[in-house]
Amino acid sequence: MSVNYCNQSCEFAFRGKRKTSAWIRRTAAAEGWETGAVSVVFCSDEALLEINRRYLKHDYYTDIITFDYSDPDKRTIAGDLMISVDTVRDNARELGVPFENELQRVIIHGILHLCGYGDKQPGEQQRMRKLEDRYLKLFYEQTN
């Protein structure tokens, strides 16, 4: 299936959809999953805060919220990656990395959640970061 990209409550032109979609499919396949319907939705801080409040009962800003509709029995990932372009931009500035790099990290973070990885329990954040680094390296090696 396809990876779809859209905006919600923000104006953002995402370049590199084809490369990113292929990378998402390669990452899922490397983790033993097929890619089903995945939507990457770019939003404003305020839009993602409202989603965070409404669906997760959290009252704080975040860079990504992943809604997982994957089918573990069929090993197919599916879901919505709701990404705050504002927070990603702020995080990139704080970390001293290009916006595009931080955006790719957030996208692969959401994909890894769809592949079944968590980041809340002890050790999970470190594992998630290592996987993000591995797949970011794959992205930049295969797109340069």
Break the fold down into its secondary structure elements and pairings.
Blueprint: E1 3-8, H1 17-30, E2 34-43, H2 45-56, E3 64-68, E4 76-84, H3 85-95, H4 99-114, H5 124-143
Parallel strand pairs: 1-2, 2-4
Antiparallel strand pairs: 3-4
Binding site for Zn(2+): 109, 113, 119
EC number: 3.1.-.-
Main location: cytoplasm
Describe the structure.
The chain has 144 residues and is an alpha/beta fold. 51% of the residues lie in helices and 21% in strands. The chain is built from 5 helices and 4 strands. It has a 4-stranded mixed β-sheet with strand order 1-2-4-3. Strand 1 (3-8), helix 1 and strand 2 form a beta-alpha-beta unit. Helix 1 packs parallel to helix 4 (99-114) and helix 3 crosses helix 4 (99-114). The chain is globular and about 35 Å long. The mean pLDDT is 96.
- Walk across the major sheet and give the strand order: 1-2-4-3
Strand content range: 15-25%
Straight-line distance between termini = 25 Å
**Tally of strands:** 4
The radius of gyration over CA amounts to: 14 Å
Q: Please trace the helix and strand order, writing H or E for each element.
A: EHEHEEHHH
Count of DSSP-assigned helices: 5
Assembly state (oligomeric): single chain
Give the rounded overall mean pLDDT: 96
Report helical residue fraction: 40-55%
Let me know the largest β-sheet: 4 strands, mixed
Shape summary: globular
The unreliable regions are none
Based on helices, strands and strand pairing, what is the structural class? alpha/beta
Protein name: Endoribonuclease YbeY
Family: Belongs to the endoribonuclease YbeY family.
Organism: Alistipes ihumii AP11
EC number: 3.1.-.-
